[in-house]
């Protein structure tokens, strides 16, 4: 029996000495948690949102940047002018900017960074951002002109993306492991599988942040995420993975729960290249069979906003077209009968995120209600990309398109979903080059109406940004106009 | 002479197993749809960019060539570069092993520290309430999924009592005590089912030995009950116990995949899991080869210890040439 007592004592002692020192927050230290770890730390060479969630605006800056409210603002460029013919833009660059290794930032460096990002076969995950760029010309040490092959109304916005940040020729290749940027924080260390640590840079050109140390800890398990917050191991979970645990946190005054918006339109994509989904009546039937609110309540615990097309409700050009394909099971059954598809059986491919897996189960049940024999198939992300997305081997699939302002994907001829609606295609083509804001609004309205009418996909909901953090923290982003955790304005109150 | 032969035989088995395992992994990873270049570059990348990244990763070569290249490099200790992380796999393995190896060892220690006294106690009180209690306890320990146990430990010690971290690993650089502390709850969750199994094995092995005539003889010679148990029954029960500990080591390494996720530990298990999800062949190969080698080596060592403790097993080995 003595030995049992000894074992118990040993366990308790060792656990006690290891009590986390982080329970009492220091005023200049922040521990922020993320569900996914990035594969590397170069925002210009990968699609993983987790890369930007650590580095965007904190370590790396672009010529322009996106603010918390989604607006485009000057960053390393102080101002820019668009030429009369809309075929070039001249950027004035900020003076006295240095990279964390001491190298100066100038127009030559900016040209290098842009040329590297847009080169043929470049490892950049968002080549469409640079598609209109013909040439980048250095006019002087702090002046740069970007020549365009066609007008591009979105250029300043495109340059604000994490995929277009400024990198130095001397450090660019090593950025994956040791990122060197111009931002207010510099990279300190990365313990793979555990956390990335950033510290304040003393050489920053702008206002110094209040925090000195920011740790991005990776917590993969949703249950553990809640435990880590409650235990005080982490101070903030800007994208909290489990909406079902929100009531516990909302009832606790020590935490702030913030439900904001993202750019993630969650859709049930329909493979209209394949019969019978090429029949508009079948697509409309699928859309009408889905009760969006039930999906939102069941899969997202009521935290999401329904959408009727591929444009987020907070977009200035948004119009509500959810009524076009409103929930109407009898209409769905009538449409299926009219299209003469009896015994339709479909498979819904579901990638790993919880929003997809949970929505998929509910939607399969709703489709069965109208007589469609729906089954679900969980797939890994790699398989989804390879088979569903690139191989187009699917009937239906659920995914959130998280890129901002991405209606252009509906115009891509070889995309995994496709539309035959010529009015929609024309409107999308015009939107690509139109610079006038009012004309753009009108085009965007046409796009939304036609998308809903053609039932290209079944539009489900806008993915919410569920953030939970220590109530004493201020300055974290409520919304996610980009996938980023800009901590430059974060501080502890009291 | 036979020792050297036996040793060489073991090394041969190890090498053959490793090559077989790596061929299996290589084939399985190539059958799985998806590749690391697509995963890295995502949904908007151009087909040219993906093709050029695939070429950079060496994935555009024929499969036999890729495999031959891997084996050739692995023979000289080069496990290649991780497609996802872009760093040598050997560095990743070393980093992760510094978490996984201490975790497995700590689990074995905890499991043995519990199972030996409990099993002995039960074996010497066969059929009595104490024996029943240990048996029921072992049954419960065996039935509790260690994921659930891990979560409960986190909620009790980290969330409610706030005397332990909810997860994560500070690294050995932060000091031995904080690092051990971070491993303790995961080790307890991993050890619980193993301790339950081991308790039953110890009880059965000791009980069996106690029925042998030599224990009765020892008692007849005047040894106390406790002395007879310790010097004779336990001494003869060692062999199955040590063998089971060796086998359990393999389970500990595999079970760690789940427990490392529950406790956010940067160990080999999670590296393997991520490697498969991201189709990072080099990482999967590296981790699996290390795990296979560890299990084989540990089992061989346990066999050797059992041989050394049990003269009967030594006799079973080909006879020594007379000196």
Uncertain residue segments of chain A = 15-24
Shape of chain A: globular
SS-based class of chain B: mainly alpha
Indicate the percent of residues in helices of chain A: 25-40%
Gyration radius from CA atoms of chain A, angstroms: 24 Å
Cα separation of the termini of chain B? 12 Å
Provide the residue-averaged pLDDT of chain A.
91
Largest sheet of chain A: 7 strands, mixed
Oligomer state equals: heterodimer
Q: Which range does the strand content of chain B fall in?
A: under 5%
Q: Averaging pLDDT over every residue of chain B, what do you get?
A: 85
Percentage of residues in DSSP E strands of chain A: 15-25%
Report what the structure shows.
The complex is a heterodimer of chains A (494) and B (323). Chain A has 494 residues and is of the alpha+beta class. Helix content of chain A is 28%, strand content 23%. Chain A has 13 helices and 19 strands. Chain A has helices at residues 2-17, 49-55, 107-118, 155-158, 222-231, 246-250, 280-289, 292-300, 329-338, 354-369, 381-390, 422-433, 437-454, and strands spanning 29-34, 64-66, 72-74, 77-82, 88-93, 133-140, 143-148, 185-191, 195-200, 213-218, 236-237, 255-270, 305-306, 345-350, 373-378, 396-401, 458-470, 473-474, 491-492. In chain A, strands 11, 12, 13, 14, 15, 16 and 17 form a seven-stranded mixed beta sheet that branches. In chain A, helix 10 links the parallel strand 14 (345-350) and strand 15. In chain A, helix 7 packs antiparallel against helix 9, helix 8 packs antiparallel against helix 10 and helix 12 runs antiparallel to helix 13 (437-454). Chain A is globular. In chain A, 49% of the residues are buried. Residues 15-24 of chain A have low confidence and may be disordered. With 323 residues, chain B is an all-alpha fold. Helices cover 77% and strands 0% of the residues of chain B. Chain B contains 13 helices and no strands. The longest helix of chain B has 38 residues, at 225-262. Chain B is globular. At the A-B interface, helix 1, helix 5 and helix 11 of A face helix 2, helix 3, helix 5, helix 7 and helix 8 of B.
């Amino acid at each position: 029996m003595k030995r049992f007592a000894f074992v118990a004592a040993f366990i308790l002692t060792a656990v006690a000495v290891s009590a986390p020192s982080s329970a009492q927050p220091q005023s200049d230290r922040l521990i922020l948690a993320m569900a996914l770890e990035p594969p590397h730390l170069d925002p210009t060479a990968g699609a993983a949102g987790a890369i930007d969630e650590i580095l965007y605006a904190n370590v790396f800056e672009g010529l322009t940047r996106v603010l918390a409210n989604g607006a485009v603002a000057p960053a390393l460029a102080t101002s820019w002018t668009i030429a009369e013919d809309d075929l070039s833009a001249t950027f004035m660059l900020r003076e006295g900017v240095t990279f964390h290794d001491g190298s100066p930032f100038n127009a030559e460096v900016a040209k290098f960074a842009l040329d590297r990002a847009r080169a043929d076969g470049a490892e950049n995950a968002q080549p469409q951002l640079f598609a209109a760029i013909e040439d980048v010309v250095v006019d002087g040490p702090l002046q740069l002109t970007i020549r365009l092959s066609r007008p591009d109304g979105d250029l300043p916005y495109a340059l604000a993306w994490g995929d277009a940040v400024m990198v130095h020729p001397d450090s660019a290749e090593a950025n994956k492991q040791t990122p060197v940027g111009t931002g207010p924080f510099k990279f300190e260390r990365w313990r793979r599988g555990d956390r990335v640590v950033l510290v304040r840079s003393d050489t920053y050109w702008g206002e110094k942040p209040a925090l000195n140390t920011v740790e991005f800890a990776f917590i993969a398990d949703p249950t553990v995420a809640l435990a880590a917050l409650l235990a005080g191991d982490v101070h903030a979970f800007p994208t909290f993975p489990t909406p079902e645990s929100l009531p516990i946190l909302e009832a606790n005054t020590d935490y702030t729960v913030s439900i904001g918006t993202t750019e993630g339109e969650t859709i049930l994509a329909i493979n209209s290249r394949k019969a019978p989904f090429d029949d508009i009546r079948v697509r409309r039937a699928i859309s009408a069979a889905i009760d969006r609110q039930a999906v939102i309540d069941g899969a997202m615990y009521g935290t999401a906003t329904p959408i009727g097309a591929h444009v987020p409700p907070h977009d200035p050009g948004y119009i509500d077209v959810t009524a076009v394909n409103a929930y109407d099971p009898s209409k769905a059954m009538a449409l299926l009968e009219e299209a003469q598809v009896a015994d339709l059986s479909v498979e819904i491919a579901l990638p790993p995120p919880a929003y997809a897996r949970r929505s998929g189960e509910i939607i399969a049940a709703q489709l069965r209600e109208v007589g469609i024999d729906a089954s679900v198939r969980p797939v890994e992300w790699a398989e989804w990309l390879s088979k569903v997305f690139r191989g187009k081997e699917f009937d239906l699939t659920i995914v959130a398109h998280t890129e901002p302002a991405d209606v252009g994907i509906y115009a891509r001829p070889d995309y995994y979903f496709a539309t035959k609606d010529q009015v929609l295609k024309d409107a999308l083509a015009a939107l690509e080059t139109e610079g006038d804001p009012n004309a753009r609004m009108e085009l965007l309205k046409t796009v939304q109406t036609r998308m809903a009418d053609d039932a290209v996909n079944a539009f489900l909901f806008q993915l919410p940004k569920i953030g939970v953090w220590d109530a004493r923290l201020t300055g974290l982003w409520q919304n996610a106009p980009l996938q980023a955790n800009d901590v430059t304005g974060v501080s502890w109150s009291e | 002479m036979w020792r050297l032969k036996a040793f060489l035989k073991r090394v041969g088995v190890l090498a053959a197993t490793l090559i077989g395992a790596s061929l299996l992994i290589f084939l399985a990873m190539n059958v799985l749809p998806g590749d690391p270049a697509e995963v890295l570059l995502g949904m908007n990348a151009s087909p040219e960019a993906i093709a050029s990244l695939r070429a950079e990763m060496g994935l555009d070569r024929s499969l036999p060539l890729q495999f031959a290249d891997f084996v050739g490099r692995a023979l000289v200790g080069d496990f290649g570069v991780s497609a996802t992380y872009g760093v040598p796999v050997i560095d990743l393995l070393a980093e992760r092993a510094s978490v996984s190896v201490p975790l497995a060892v700590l689990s074995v220690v905890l499991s043995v520290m519990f199972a030996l006294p409990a099993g002995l106690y039960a074996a010497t009180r066969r059929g009595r309430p104490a024996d029943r209690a240990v048996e029921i306890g072992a049954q419960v320990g065996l039935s509790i999924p260690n994921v659930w146990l891990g979560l409960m430990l986190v909620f009790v010690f980290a969330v409610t009592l706030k005397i332990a971290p909810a997860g994560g690993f500070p690294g050995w650089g932060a000091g031995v005590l904080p690092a051990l502390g971070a491993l303790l709850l995961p080790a307890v969750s991993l050890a619980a089912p193993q301790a339950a199994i081991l308790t039953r094995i110890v009880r059965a092995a000791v009980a069996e030995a106690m029925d042998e005539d030599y224990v009765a003889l020892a008692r007849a010679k005047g040894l106390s009950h406790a002395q007879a148990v310790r010097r004779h029954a336990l001494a003869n029960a060692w062999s199955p116990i040590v063998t089971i500990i060796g086998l359990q080591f393999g389970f500990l390494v595999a079970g760690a995949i789940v427990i490392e996720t529950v406790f956010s530990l940067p160990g080999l298990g999670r590296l393997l899991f991520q490697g498969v999800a991201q189709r990072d062949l080099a990482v999967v190969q590296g981790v699996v080869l290390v795990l296979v080698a560890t299990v084989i080596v540990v089992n061989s060592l346990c066999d050797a210890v059992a041989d050394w403790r049990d003269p009967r097993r030594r006799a079973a080995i080909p006879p020594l040439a007379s000196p």
